[in-house]
Amino acid sequence: MNEKEIGELRRHFRADKSNITHVRGCYVNEKKEIISQFDQSMALMGPEESEKLLGILRKTLSGTLGKNLLDIPFETRQVVEGDEHRLLMALRDSELRDQEAVEAFFQRAIRSLDLEGNTKI
Fold first, then answer.
1. Which residues lie closer than 8 Å to 29 by C-beta, 6 or more apart?
2. 11, 55, 57, 64: most buried by Cβ count inside 10 Å?
3. pLDDT tens across 41-95, in order?
4. How many Cα neighbours within 13 Å face the side chain of 45?
């Protein structure tokens, strides 16, 4: 990924250009326990709430490549045969309705984090 591609992604995280229709997430405490989950349609959010969420998404892509943003290369075989790829495809294909896949994703994300206080995933 290069700076131009990152900029293009950031531009899609705007209310007038976004095709994000649904958001799922969870809140995690410092013991890595899920304390709450949310499952919300973007269409049902007010403009302020949806802009706040899109702002958070834009912020995840801020920084510079090699410093705050890391490019992690994968071989095609790793992607196609990997558990991570199967999990992401299950989430995409179920439109985030497969509760088992959502839980598995949350647990993988939680295991990879160093938590200080409550965190939103």
1. 35, 115, 117, 118
2. 57
3. 888 988 899 999 899 888 888 878 877 787 777 788 877 788 888 999 999 999 9
4. 18
The burial class, CB within 10 Å (0-12 / 13-18 / 19+), for 102 is buried
Record the tokens describing residue 21, joined without a space. 């229709």
**Rounded CA gap, 118 and 28, in Å?**
5
What is d(CA 84, CA 104) in angstroms, rounded to the nearest whole number? Answer: 10
Output phi, psi for 65, to 5 deg. Answer: -60, 135
The token duo for 29 is: 């405490």
